Amino acid sequence: MGLEAVGDLALHIILSKLGAEESGRAACVSKQLRASASEDPLWSHFCAQELHLSQPLDPHGNLAPSFKACYQSWRESFHMYPWSLVKRVKRCWGKITNWLTLNFPEAQSTLNKGASEADIQELENTLKVKLPLPTRILYRFHDGQDLEDKNRSSSRNGTPVLGLIGGYSFYDKMVNVCLLPLHQIVLETKDIMETLDFSATPDYIVVAASSTYSQKLFFLNCTSGQLYVGTANLLTDGEMLPCVPNALVNSVHDYNGDQQQDAMLLWLEEHGRRLENGIIKLREQENMRSISQFPEEPPLCSTAITSGVQVRCSSVFVPELTDLEDTIQKYYFSYSIRMSLLPEGCSINGMTFNSCQLLSRHWVIRAGDVVVGNVNAEAVIGKYPLLRPGETEFVYESCTPLPSLSGSIEGSFVFVPGRLADSKGRGFRVLAARFPLQLPDYIF
Q: Is the Cβ–Cβ distance between 204 and 218 less than 8 Å?
């Protein structure tokens, strides 16, 4: 049976199965195939399948005259890169930007438009580096964040809170990590290189940072493709930790393969996965919203309910306070405790109360299976939270050092029904279920 006997619908199905490149080749075979391969519904399918586009938008966000023209503009704009890698980077950014649009539009608005090849080349010439392929493409989509509008991007103390990566806080410390634009990478890298002795390894550049009480800096090794974060000893001896498992970083300068993945791409993909799956979420505090790195889902977050009081606990590794040269207080972890009273109130011995107030806490801290801390004290960070049904969680953060890579915390709180000043009964113990302290595979 010749092609003339095949209907248009059948040809459309065949070409859609072949894919965009093979459809382009098939168009050279006959007039009928050329006509079928030029139909815009076919290219709408390819744009949706490969680029996740529901509208014919070109790489600059402009509306193209057709889906076929849209697809061609994407291929032409990124012709110098492996197409499979371009599609992967677009999926990565798509997950992040879709989440930001739905949940955190004020942070989404800080993302810059993509950098040009000339912009990237200028950075490479200035810093004398060669960016890994995945990082180049990441910056072709979005040139970091613009946080220069302090009224839009800062809290009352001037700390940026719209960072793409987010962070954590405890005591007077606040961390909020943003992705730097190319021009700021140049400035930050030159500045830090004057402080650090990187003369033997000039291939490090600063790609993400939090300008806070304790500066947190992320460095990309442009030769290996690994991403590093500075420790407490960064400024004295250049001490850093890898942010992604080394075994996953592969072929970062290979234009011909299809397995290229540097740490920047893996890092952002993992961040997008955590956002999409609700592992990390927004935190709202004092009319200020930011992405919190404290996990919200098990097994990294524990939940216990005792007599109507719910306590949720999780931790995050704090690399910028970590001191690998210290044998006792080597690794630092911040932990977040969220407590609330369920809508039905506080129930004790068959009696229900509409409030309860914290009196004291008890923590057991372990390094591995060894108890390294046993704390009994009044209050939490100097506060005695009063819980009522339906009110938002009371949240407090603290930190602890560990001599080992992993450990745990568990404990309890003593609450009194009613208020401390007007107790309605004896104090009762509320469980804080064990939660892990561990050096993660991905450090943010």
A: no
Cβ atoms within 10 Å of 130's Cβ, excluding its own? 13
Strands 386-387 and 394-402, sheet pairing: unpaired
Give the start-end residues of each E strand in 222-330: 227-230, 240-242, 281-285, 288-292, 301-306, 309-317
Least confident of 276-290, 320-334, 392-406: 276-290
Give the number of other CB atoms < 10 A from CB of residue 388.
Answer: 14
Nearest of 333, 295, 297, 293 to residue 317 by alpha carbon? 333
pTM over 0.85: yes
Over range 208-214, report the average pLDDT.
73
pLDDT confidence tier of residue 149, bands split at 50, 70 and 90: low
Measure the CA–CA gap between 87 and 50, rounded to whole angstroms: 6
C-alpha span between 231 and 322 (Å, rounded): 5
- β-bridge partners, 413: 361, 430
Question: For the CA atoms of 12, 13, 14, 19, what is the dihedral angle to 10 degrees?
Answer: 90
* Residue with tokens 């892990």, as numbered in its chain: 436
Q: Is 143 helix (H, G, I), strand (E, B) or coil?
A: coil
User: Quick one: how many helices (H) and strands (E) in the chain?
Assistant: 13, 20
In angstroms, how far is the first alpha carbon of the chain from the final one? 60
Q: Give the C-alpha separation, 414 to 107, whole Å.
A: 39
Residues 303/310, Cβ–Cβ less than 8 Å: yes
CA distance 276 to 204: 30
Copy the structure tokens of residue 44: 């709408």
d(C-alpha 321, C-alpha 342), whole Å = 36
> Does position 152 have pLDDT exceeding 70, yes or no?
no
Report pLDDT digits (tens) over 268-313. Answer: 999 999 999 999 999 987 778 999 999 999 999 999 999 999 999 9
How many angstroms separate the Cα of 9 from the Cα of each of 4, 25, 28, 440? 13, 19, 19, 51
Instruction: Enter the DSSP assignment of 58.
Output: -
The pLDDT tens digits of the residues spanning 74-100 come to: 999 999 999 999 999 999 999 999 999
| Residue bearing tokens 């399918």 | 45
Give the side-chain half-sphere CA count within 13 A for 100. Answer: 22
Q: What is the DSSP string of 377-399?
A: EESBTTB-PEE-BTPPPEEEEEE
Contact 358, 341 (CB under 8 A): no
